[in-house]
Amino acid sequence: MQSTDITEAKTQITARLPNTVVSALDAAARRLRRSRAEVVRRAVERYLEDFDDLSVAVDRLRDPSDPVLDWDQVRRDLLDTD
Fold it and tell me: How many Å apart are CA 45 and CA 25, to the nearest integer?
Protein backbone atom coordinates (compact mmCIF):
# COMPACT_ATOMS: atom_id res chain seq x y z
CA MET A 1 0.00 0.00 0.00
CA GLN A 2 1.36 3.39 -0.95
CA SER A 3 0.93 6.65 0.88
CA THR A 4 -2.05 8.67 -0.24
CA ASP A 5 -1.47 11.18 -3.01
CA ILE A 6 -2.63 14.78 -2.52
CA THR A 7 -4.81 14.51 -5.64
CA GLU A 8 -6.34 11.19 -4.59
CA ALA A 9 -10.04 11.33 -3.72
CA LYS A 10 -10.69 11.07 -0.01
CA THR A 11 -13.65 9.87 1.99
CA GLN A 12 -14.38 11.19 5.44
CA ILE A 13 -15.01 8.60 8.15
CA THR A 14 -16.00 8.83 11.79
CA ALA A 15 -14.51 6.76 14.59
CA ARG A 16 -15.17 6.79 18.32
CA LEU A 17 -12.03 6.63 20.42
CA PRO A 18 -11.49 6.68 24.18
CA ASN A 19 -10.56 10.12 25.53
CA THR A 20 -7.12 8.82 26.54
CA VAL A 21 -6.41 7.79 22.94
CA VAL A 22 -7.58 11.16 21.61
CA SER A 23 -5.34 12.95 24.14
CA ALA A 24 -2.36 10.85 23.05
CA LEU A 25 -3.24 11.47 19.39
CA ASP A 26 -3.42 15.22 19.93
CA ALA A 27 -0.10 15.21 21.78
CA ALA A 28 1.55 13.24 18.97
CA ALA A 29 0.07 15.57 16.35
CA ARG A 30 1.45 18.61 18.19
CA ARG A 31 4.92 17.07 18.50
CA LEU A 32 4.91 16.04 14.84
CA ARG A 33 3.45 19.38 13.75
CA ARG A 34 0.78 17.51 11.83
CA SER A 35 -2.99 17.59 11.92
CA ARG A 36 -4.90 14.97 13.86
CA ALA A 37 -6.25 13.68 10.53
CA GLU A 38 -2.74 13.32 9.07
CA VAL A 39 -1.51 11.33 12.07
CA VAL A 40 -4.55 9.03 11.90
CA ARG A 41 -4.19 8.62 8.11
CA ARG A 42 -0.51 7.68 8.38
CA ALA A 43 -1.17 5.31 11.29
CA VAL A 44 -3.92 3.52 9.37
CA GLU A 45 -1.74 3.26 6.25
CA ARG A 46 1.10 1.71 8.26
CA TYR A 47 -1.28 -0.64 10.06
CA LEU A 48 -2.69 -1.84 6.74
CA GLU A 49 0.82 -2.36 5.33
CA ASP A 50 1.68 -4.50 8.36
CA PHE A 51 -1.63 -6.34 8.02
CA ASP A 52 -0.84 -7.13 4.37
CA ASP A 53 2.62 -8.41 5.32
CA LEU A 54 1.19 -10.55 8.11
CA SER A 55 -1.49 -11.94 5.79
CA VAL A 56 1.17 -13.02 3.29
CA ALA A 57 3.20 -14.64 6.08
CA VAL A 58 0.19 -16.54 7.42
CA ASP A 59 -0.75 -17.68 3.91
CA ARG A 60 2.79 -19.01 3.43
CA LEU A 61 2.69 -20.80 6.77
CA ARG A 62 -0.56 -22.49 5.76
CA ASP A 63 0.75 -23.45 2.29
CA PRO A 64 1.56 -27.16 2.41
CA SER A 65 3.82 -26.86 -0.65
CA ASP A 66 6.03 -24.26 1.03
CA PRO A 67 9.04 -26.10 2.50
CA VAL A 68 9.62 -26.09 6.25
CA LEU A 69 13.17 -25.24 7.22
CA ASP A 70 15.01 -27.09 9.93
CA TRP A 71 16.29 -24.48 12.39
CA ASP A 72 19.38 -26.47 13.38
CA GLN A 73 20.40 -26.91 9.74
CA VAL A 74 19.84 -23.22 8.97
CA ARG A 75 21.92 -22.24 12.00
CA ARG A 76 24.72 -24.59 10.96
CA ASP A 77 24.63 -23.22 7.40
CA LEU A 78 24.81 -19.64 8.67
CA LEU A 79 27.57 -20.27 11.19
CA ASP A 80 29.69 -22.39 8.85
CA THR A 81 30.08 -19.58 6.31
CA ASP A 82 33.04 -17.22 6.49
Answer: 16
CB 40 within 8 A of CB 25: yes
Q: Is pLDDT of 79 > 70?
A: yes
Tens digits of per-residue pLDDT, 35-66?
999 999 999 999 999 999 988 888 888 888 87
Half-sphere exposure (Cβ direction) of 2: Cα atoms closer than 13 Å: 4
Those residues with Cβ within 8 angstroms of residue 52's Cβ, 6 or more apart along the chain or in another chain: 1
d(CA 82, CA 80): 7
DSSP state of 3: P
Residue that wins the pLDDT comparison between 60 and 31: 31
Cα distance between the two ends of the chain:
38
